[in-house]
Amino acid sequence: MAAPLPHLPRSAGRAAETPAPSQESSGDLAPSPWLAQRAPLLPPAVPHSQAGPRLGPDRIKKKELDVLAIPSIPNPFPELCCSPLSSVLSASLLPKATSRKKQVIKVYSEDDTSRALEVPGDATARDVCQLLILKNHYIDDHSWTLFEHLPRIGLERMIEDHELVIEVQSNWGIEEENRLYFRKNYAKYEFFKHPMNYFPEHMVSLSSETSGMIGHAQILQMFLSSSTYPEIHGYLHAKEQGKKSSWKKLYFLLRRSGLYFSTKGTSKEPRHLQFFSEFSSSDMYMSLAGKKTSGTPANYGFCFKPNKAGGVRDLKQLCADDEQSRTCWMTAIRLLKYGMQLYQNYMQPYQGRGGCSSLTISPMRSISENSLVAMDFSGHRSRVIENPTEALSVAVEEGLAWRRKGCLRLNTHGSPTTSQSATSSVAIHRTQLWFHHKISRDEAQRLILQQGLVDGVFLVRDSQSNPKTFVLSMSHGLKIKHFQIVPLEEDGKLFYTLDDGHTRFTDLIQLVEFYQLNKGVLPCKLKHYCARIAL
Q1: What pLDDT, on a 0 to 100 scale, did the predictor assign at position 10?
Q2: Residue 423 carries which DSSP code?
Q3: Distance CA 396, CA 390 (A)
Q4: Predicted confidence (pLDDT) per residue in 180-231, tens digit
Q5: Burial 120-137 (b: 16+ CB within 10 A, else e)
Q6: pLDDT value at position 501?
Q7: Residue 478: left (phi > 0), alpha (psi -120 to 50), or beta?
Q8: What is the pLDDT of residue 330?
Q9: What residues have CB less than 8 Å from 136, skipping those under 6 apart?
Q10: 115: phi > 0 → left, psi -120 to 50 → alpha, else beta; which?
Q11: DSSP H or E segment with residue 388
């Protein structure tokens, strides 16, 4: 009596019932995905004279069926079969392989130095920023941003972290001198932290379905996920198409379907609303040119430009009356266009993309606050100070020692001296990243605006009106304010003060460090300094 057949997998059973597969259909009968992705191993050619006895067609057919009837063994290492480094390519990997084609891009910094990078075609703006951070050993505080700069028409926009850089460049014209800039933008996701600064009550109205008082956090949630989208409304200056300097002040409304303006005062009736722009096929830019050069009613212009290359005639230009109004409109339009993607960018700054493995390097190397430890080098062998109290006392002691050394200045001949008046030309503050030497008031405002109107963004510069004084320029409440730093001389010693001598400092470094910890006479503490970095 014949022994019972062993239980076979369903795929193997089907294979046993069918005739021997031909060369064309062999891929459909593969017993496991692992075998389908492996190239067939061909035995070395054997001379006919050395070959053993040849099998007949029936015996070959029976042997093939026996092999196919063997139960499939699951692959314990599936990730090795689809490795991009494998020399064996399957049809399913071909589209991914084409998307990995690398291209060279050129990125500029604010001092006009540049760096060429070879990036894959699916590299996002965040991937490029991470690559530049690692190559230049910068601290990653989640504020580094890539900007698209269009000098010919005086526009600039922030490239969102999830946007593909090669796709942005593909929209540029051949003769255009557009650039990619790499710098910090502290206001990139600030509206998630302090929405009350970005959505003033007089510009936001809720639908009739919403009842009761709604906080700013709830407004953000409505922007992201609710069907009852909050309506942004207010006056904007719009440039009429085809006219060089004709601007008209209209009442605008932002809704889910797009941006509208009223043809009759502030009426919101559908018959009085006229469509102005949608955002799926266009990008929003900030105008860099002032009202003197561009003819705008104010210095708070922005516009919509089609994704494809286009000139000034294709722009839909708007202008607000103040910075708060422009910031509200532009933030609401960003939320309307990208929605939850913006929140994901904000919450997951380090999450890499599966298709960009070459750039998904751990960014922890560039965050010095998370990698530095207190060390003791006083003995013959160095050691890590694990006791927090001991580490704090060492830090205080080193700070006092640095202060004592800071009292020694270098004169023009390079020898140490205790006289501060003899070394005024070699001031230690000139080496600080927050000091910008001889820049104008307008240039200081431009730098702060570029890096984000967040409370506490600051820089220190020489005063143009009084050569012996300095100016502290800082951002607060979406406005840029300037405070004069006055030098005082008493008993042959030089001091610096912001409050008419009530609080005195021996140098500008002490002054900046004090106001980073204390508000004092300033509207807020100094938080982020503006720096021109070099690539």
Answers
A1: 44
A2: G
A3: 10
A4: 999 999 999 999 988 888 988 899 887 655 555 566 677 777 777 766 678 8
A5: bbbbbbbbbbbbbbbeee
A6: 87
A7: left
A8: 96
A9: 533, 535
A10: beta
A11: helix 388-406
Reference 453, options 472, 473, 439; nearest CA is 473
- Each residue of 295-320: pLDDT tens digit? 888 989 999 998 876 667 788 999 99
Query: Which region, left, alpha or beta, applies to residue 212 given φ > 0 means left and ψ of -120 to 50 means alpha?
Result: left
Distance CA 128, CA 125 (A): 5
User: Which tokens sit at 526?
Assistant: 């100094």
E strand intervals along 245-329: 247-255, 258-262, 273-277, 282-287, 301-306, 316-319
CA distance 330 to 321: 14
Edge-to-edge strand list for the sheet holding 457-462: 493-497, 479-490, 470-476, 457-462, 528-529
Q: How far apart are CA 448 and CA 15, in angstroms?
A: 71
Give the number of other Cβ atoms within 10 Å of residue 143's Cβ: 20
Report pLDDT for 376. Answer: 75
Residue whose pair of structure tokens reads 């050069």 in the numeric block: 293
Label the pairing between strands 102-108 and 179-184.
Answer: parallel
445: tokens are 């405002």
At residue 226, the 3 state secondary structure works out as coil
The rounded distance, in Å, linking the Cα atoms of 247 and 317 is 9
Yes or no: say if 189 and 342 are a contact pair by the CB < 8 Å rule.
yes
Contacts of 145 (CB under 8 A, 6+ apart): 125, 129, 158, 159, 182, 183, 184, 185, 188
Q: Which two tokens stand for residue 285?
A: 């830019």
Quote the pLDDT of residue 27: 39
CA pair distance 128, 140, nearest whole angstrom: 13
Tokens of 210: 């919403």
Residue type, 442: D
Q: How many CB atoms lie within 10 A of CB 263?
A: 13
User: 420: number of CA atoms within 13 Å, CB side?
Assistant: 17
pLDDT at 195: 87
pLDDT under 70 in the chain at which residues? 1-100, 207-216, 226-228, 242-245, 292-294, 309-311, 349-372, 379, 396, 398-427
3-state secondary structure of 124: strand
Q: Residue type at 397?
A: E
**Number of C-beta neighbours around residue 331 at 10 A:** 20
Written as one letter, the residue type at 311 is G
